[in-house]
Design goal:
With 988 residues, the chain is α/β, with parallel strands linked by helices. Helices cover 51% and strands 8% of the residues. The structure holds adenosine-5'-triphosphate (ATP). The site of adenosine-5'-triphosphate has 23 residues, from helix 17, helix 26 and helix 33.
């Protein structure tokens, strides 16, 4: 009876957990389990799962039915729920009394029955091979092609397609069910690792493997950014970047490694075999792949893969022929000298032993789409169609593919085909240190560079991006010699490398003052035009003709900004590309700023809002600014996307920086000042208009709620452009019209660089705001960058941001001086007891501080004791959250003593802290004495009956407390039932 009531009582929580994501997957998986266990019959299932009906309605019907079916069904339902819900979504639900689920034994007679009893596992197995199963059903005559099409409707997710297939098969009878089961059996056998007999690669295969690995090794042992000046072995400079999974994953402790990228860690879709590594421009995606390639070629990692085929999307753009997969592999990676067919057959037979990598999906001319199906590896198709089908797994199923891309180019269509997504967040602070030391063989120089970075934290923030760290290290002489004028912005850094390269060519000729640019103006314009037209046509590799058209001379090439393209096997003439695509963007920006031929509309078009998610992946506006030849070329490309948004945004950022007041003297003799002034006005107008657009999008607040702005992706970019201009007047103007109480910038890829820009602009807000930066990569350096805007923040939310005690030390030192600062949330960072002394100081000093949330960090009893010291002297704190730390009973006792006499505390959460009954009894004292406390959260704390008795007794003296949460403690069902009767405010 109790379990039935539990389902009823938790109806709201269950509905929320099942449906709030908006996806029907949880409900459908629960239904699969209940069907398989025989708790629902087919008619029940159809009554619940009514197509087209709202998800919540379906879920409510399910709950009604489960309740009316009685205790056993409720037990199983809770068991199914527990299995299906991710831990955090199930956290608010009590599963007391649920059944553990066991798969039903397969001793029944018919295949149709097996389809039901094994439904959950069949759904998961079918997801990866729907097409094959459908084909088998069509060939055997059980399905018509209309049946297949209906199953395959693209509005269904892969798991829904699998369920539709099973439901259809059910109506076709026993022999259709047999076909599906047989097909799955064969599929499983073909996927399981082959035994040694089957896997005997021929001599020719082994020769090919050797040829491929030596070619991969040759291509990956040097880093191309050093190509123009010196050679640098990848081994000597490679520095680990920060990798993390895009999805929360419980089984990952510690940082991800390169091997984890190809391993099973963090898999979200078992049926898919594409792993995406995403990261911002210059964050090291190509270098990471290069490292993987080298490790494989040397035999030091990824040895489960016999062959690795590396592709660059940039180079695939130049392939205009239709190719088969076989031709793609052999012609673009490595040509087998003999026995091509045999080698290809081996690849087809052993997909799990093969790895493909595709670098820079964002650079492909076509945006990803899964509309055009192509399944046959020997049939030809345009290369992008092959690529898209490989990624989806409709071609070469089972071959693992690792794809890299900038995040902006990854839409929902691609996401649904991913096994997992790994984020590459550039260098950590210790990574920067390590890189600089590797870059400079002289340790004194390295130490000086690092020292100068410590004194310029804006620049240190920029160095989290490997490409900028590379420039800064490369230009160490300029950096160390520039004293006060040390670079602050990305544009400053790129100007530094520009000057460095020009002067590198004439080391003896010391260019006086600002004349260096004028001296090299023609080179800048030639390369600028090449870069500008290239961006407009998604072209990153330039032929001799391209160079000629833009007037690029041999002397220009010698400056070192262009490097010769590697492995252009299909062409014999020399081809060039910029050292890095961000360098191409910089030259394009220089061209826009300096050229006499720049169209009047170029700057406004560059700044037009171009959110990829809004425009469906491409922006056509920029094309109109191109010279007519480039436009024609673009039209000839047919479905080619125009310039990609991320690069346009980078160019716009550089244009803002180049036109800033500080750099105008550089252009004095390069461009008429009236033209310059006009361009500056255009940029300022565009930035102001861009900001206005965001402000207009803010909805009016619902009564009683704060006015809140959830930043659109372009917001951070505009802020960065304003920062590049380094004119506080512009920042002030932009902010003067913003009136919000809460600024939400969650999941916006905010790192230290973005924090610098945010603080620069937000400090001009007129009224205090809550600044919510949850789920970014702010880190300690970012925290330091935020300090200038702390005075305007009344609350700061920094959940999940890699912040350590050191960041907190600086943050609190500043926060104490800020009158408005009242709330902070730091859930899921890297805090230890060492930070608690700072919070203690804050609590002692600020008698108006309201909320401190430190959940899911590493705070122990010692830290709790430190906090208690501060709490004793504080009379304002209303919310204290220490969820998921390890304060234990001693910590709870210390907090209880400190909070006993608090007249302000409303809410205290110590979920999952191992406080035990001793802790609970100590906390009962707060309840006894408090006149303010409303809620106490103590789930998952190993509390036994003794502890709860103390709480019950304390509640007898307190009418203010509304609820004490006690789920998942050490209590039997009977105890829970009895105590609920005695005290209704206890929630189990
Ligand atoms: N892990 C690393 N170790 C050492 N240097 C690195 C590392 N990652 C990147 N770099 C430096 O930064 C430069 C740019 O990195 P890379 O080209 O890999 O970035 P990316 O993310 O692929 O950029 P984009 O998206 O713009 O193509 C490299 O050429 C190299 O000089």
């Amino acid at each position: 009876m109790f379990v039935q009531e539990l389902v009823l009582k938790q109806r709201t929580e269950i509905l929320h957990a099942l449906c709030s994501s908006g996806s029907a997957e949880h409900v459908e998986r629960v239904l699969d389990i209940l069907l398989a266990q025989g708790e629902l019959i087919w008619e029940d299932y159809q009554n619940i799962q009514v197509p087209g009906r709202a998800l919540y309605t379906n879920a409510r019907h399910l709950l009604d039915l489960v309740y009316t079916k009685g205790v056993d069904t409720c037990r199983l339902f809770l068991g199914a729920l527990k299995q299906v819900l991710p831990e955090e979504q199930g956290a608010s639900i009590s599963f007391a009394g649920c059944c553990s689920l066991e798969e039903k034994e397969e001793n029944q007679s018919t295949s149709t029955q097996t389809l039901v009893t094994q439904r959950p596992s069949l759904v998961s197995k079918l997801q990866g091979c729907i097409d094959g199963a459908l084909k088998a059903l069509v060939i055997s005559g059980h399905f018509t092609s209309a049946d297949s099409e209906e199953v395959r409707l693209p509005i269904h997710t892969p798991s829904q397609q699998a369920r539709r297939l099973l439901d259809h098969v059910r109506s076709k009878g026993e022999s259709a069910a047999k076909v599906v089961l047989q097909y799955l059996q064969q599929e499983q056998e073909s996927r399981s690792p082959p035994n040694q007999d089957k896997l005997t690669p021929s001599k020719e295969f082994l020769k090919y493997q050797k040829k491929l690995s030596s070619s991969v090794s040759a291509q990956s042992c040097f880093l191309s950014t050093y190509g123009g000046t010196s050679h640098m072995c990848l081994d000597d400079i490679y520095t680990e970047g920060q990798l993390e999974l895009a999805h929360d994953c419980v089984d990952v402790s510690g940082p991800l490694t390169l091997e984890n990228i190809v391993g099973t860690t963090g898999t979200v879709n078992e049926g898919a075999d594409t792993v995406l590594v995403s990261g911002e421009a210059g964050n090291g995606k190509s270098t990471l792949l290069q490292k993987l390639h080298l490790l494989w070629a040397r035999g030091t990692a990824l040895q489960d893969f016999l062959l690795l085929f590396p592709f660059s999307c940039r180079r695939l753009n130049s392939e205009h022929r239709e190719l088969s997969v076989q031709e793609l592999l052999f012609q673009h990676c490595c040509w087998p000298d003999r026995e091509q067919e045999e080698i290809f057959q081996f690849i087809l037979d052993h997909p799990h032993l093969i790895l493909f990598t595709f670098d820079g999906l964002d650079e492909l001319k076509q945006s990803f789409s899964d509309e055009h199906r192509h399944c046959c590896p020997t049939q030809r198709a345009p290369v992008h169609i092959l690529l898209f089908n490989l990624i989806q797994g409709s071609l070469m199923k089972g071959v693992l593919k690792v794809v890299t891309s900038r995040p902006e180019a990854v839409g929902p269509v691609l996401k649904k085909h991913l096994r997992k997504e790994v984020l590459l967040n550039g260098f950590s602070p210790s990574g920067i240190d390590c890189f600089v030391r590797k870059h400079h063989s002289d340790p004194t120089v390295a130490a000086k560079v690092l020292e100068s970075l410590q004194t310029n934290t804006a620049l240190l923030g920029l160095c989290h991006s490997p490409v900028l760290c590379w420039i800064v290290s490369q230009c160490h002489k300029e950096l160390l010699g520039c004293g006060e004028g040390s670079p602050q912005t990305i544009t400053d850094v790129y100007l530094m490398i520009l000057q460095h390269f020009f002067q590198h060519q004439h080391p003896l000729k010391s260019t006086v003052g600002l004349g260096w640019l004028q001296e090299h103006l023609q080179t800048v314009l030639h390369l600028g035009q090449l870069a500008f037209e290239g961006i407009g046509t998604t072209c990153y590799i330039f032929s001799g003709t391209d160079l000629e058209t833009c007037g690029v001379t041999e002397k220009d090439i010698c400056m070192g900004f262009l490097i010769q393209s590697k492995d252009m096997s299909s062409t014999h003439s020399k081809c060039y590309e910029f050292l890095h695509v961000t360098m191409q963007c910089f030259f394009a920006a220089l061209y826009i700023v300096l050229s006499k031929n720049t169209d009047r509309s170029t700057i406004p078009k560059l700044f037009e809002p171009k959110d990829m998610r809004e425009t469906g992946g491409s922006s056509t506006c920029f094309r109109a600014c191109l010279p007519s030849t480039a436009q024609q070329e673009q039209v000839l490309e047919g479905d080619a996307t125009a310039a990609e948004t991320p690069n346009l945004q980078i160019i716009a950022t550089f244009v803002s920086g180049l036109l800033s007041q500080r750099h105008r003297s550089l252009w004095l003799h390069c461009c008429p000042s009236a033209v310059m002034e006009k361009r500056v006005r255009q940029v300022v107008r565009c930035l102001s208009k861009g900001m206005q657009k965001h402000f207009k999008s803010i909805p009016q607040p619902v009564e009683g709620e704060k006015k809140s702005m959830h930043a659109m992706p372009g917001f951070v970019w505009i802020i960065k452009c304003i920062y590049e201009m380094q004119e506080s007047r512009i920042a002030k103007d932009a902010m003067s019209k913003l009136e919000v109480d809460h600024l939400k910038l969650t999941y916006c890829n905010i790192g230290p660089v973005e924090c610098t820009a945010l603080a620069y602009v937000l400090q001009h807000l007129r009224n205090p705001v809550g600044l919510q930066l949850d789920n970014n990569s702010v880190g300690d350096v970012g925290v330091e960058q935020l300090l200038p805007c702390m005075h305007i923040c009344n609350s700061l939310y920094l959940r999940n941001n890699n912040i350590t005690d050191e960041g907190i030390r600086k943050l609190i030192a500043k926060g104490i001086q800020c009158d408005n600062f009242r709330k902070i949330a730091l859930f899921n960072n890297k805090l230890t007891d060492a930070c608690t002394q700072h919070f203690s100081h804050l609590l002692k000093t600020k008698q108006d501080f309201l909320s401190l949330r430190l959940g899911n960090n590493n705070i122990t009893a010692e830290g709790a004791k430190q906090l208690a010291e501060g709490l004793k002297c504080n009379h304002s704190l209303q919310y204290l959250g220490l969820w998921g730390n390890k304060i234990g009973d001693a910590g709870a006792e210390a907090l209880a003593r400190a909070l006993e006499s608090s007249k302000a505390l409303l809410w205290l959460s110590l979920v999952g802290n191992g406080v035990g009954s001793t802790g609970a009894c100590a906390l009962a004292n707060i309840i006894k004495n408090s006149t303010s406390l409303k809620g106490l959260w103590l789930p998952e704390n190993c509390i036994t009956r003794t502890g709860v008795e103390c709480l019950i007794q304390a509640l007898e003296h307190n009418t203010h407390v509304e609820s004490i949460w006690l789920r998942n403690n050490d209590l039997s069902l009977e105890e829970v039932e009895e105590m609920t009767q005695r005290e209704s405010r206890l929630i189990f």
